[in-house]
Protein 1
Amino acid sequence: MKLLDLYCKAGGASKGYVDAGFEVIGIDIKKQKRYPFTFIQADCLEILQDLDYLRTFDVIAASPPCQTHSATKHLRNAQGKSTDKVDLIPQTRESLVASGVPYVIENVPGAPLINPVQFCGSSFGLKVRRHRLFESSVQLTGSVCDHKKQGKPVGIYGSMRDEIPGGGHTAKTIEQAREAMGIGWMIWGELVEAIPPVYTYTIGKQLFTNLAGCF
């Protein structure tokens, strides 16, 4: 099955869907030179208006900008770094529903998603927690956190070697950050915005199971 990954960034989510068996095309408004699959540089909002194009895919995944809702915006503000206040979730959902194509929308806790499930890195043996929510038109099952077994997580946000309020630091090296996320090809600025591929691998397998009777 073919999957369109909107707002794909450097391809963390795409990697999981590919590993699950999808043929993936990623679209992002910014050039992603390390994106490992077929990539189109374009404005996702414009793509979302082309319903005929959307309907050429079996599934559409979307990760609209999430800085408006992210808990790390407070750290970024304290550091004097800009915060993107754009919220593209409503427009994205409206077009996906209009397309009639099964969809998955990803965002952070606190984002206005509808009946989302949550995934946590501690469920998969990762050193990063990275709680993420997934809304879908297909029934999904999220993961169960196991923070106690995971122990102290590795922070992948802000800057490397940042002091974390309450103690600790973000990842001290790029190698540590990549291992914590289960991603081997990204640089720091990409890892900060990425989704661990194991999340979307798990979702992809559920999509195949739940949509099998539709094809």
Protein 2
Amino acid sequence: MKYQIGRNVKLASLISLLIVVPSPAWAQDVPKWAAPEPWFVYTVVIVLFIGSLLTLLLIRAALSSSKWSLADALSEEAEVTSMETDPAGGVKPRLDASSGKPLMVTEMRSSTSRLIAFMGMIVILLMFLGFGAFALYSFGKTGDMPDSTDKIVNFLFAGLTLFAPYVVNKFSTAFESLSPKKG
């Protein structure tokens, strides 16, 4: 029984392949792709573009009603010297009682590399949406992606260099833990 079911499945698969896969003789009967009406192409492109922007606005609205903060997200932990005000009004480093060295504390500080990465991401996102709208329009009108799509991809990939400071900072932080500590 098990053998017969397996044989029937194989036979059904073979028949469906023969029906689905066109031969060169059948391929001539397939009509060429016809472009949809211009209003339809414009409608699809505009709906996708506006939908993408509305999604970004909805995410922004959801984040604004929460405790999430862009300033906190763009900050990173930094080790700084703890300072104290002396009775004369001067500021001096707070000293560790046991070693006599300045006391180091970890606090959140604004990060230029994260700000650059964030701005770069926004610019690349908007360019991606813009180029995507033109590519979608071209595909709707001709049935093919534009020949220059590879050049656009290379351009957007080159734009990723805006993230270089952030990447370098992350690598330096990762390798910092491997270096010997200075006593």
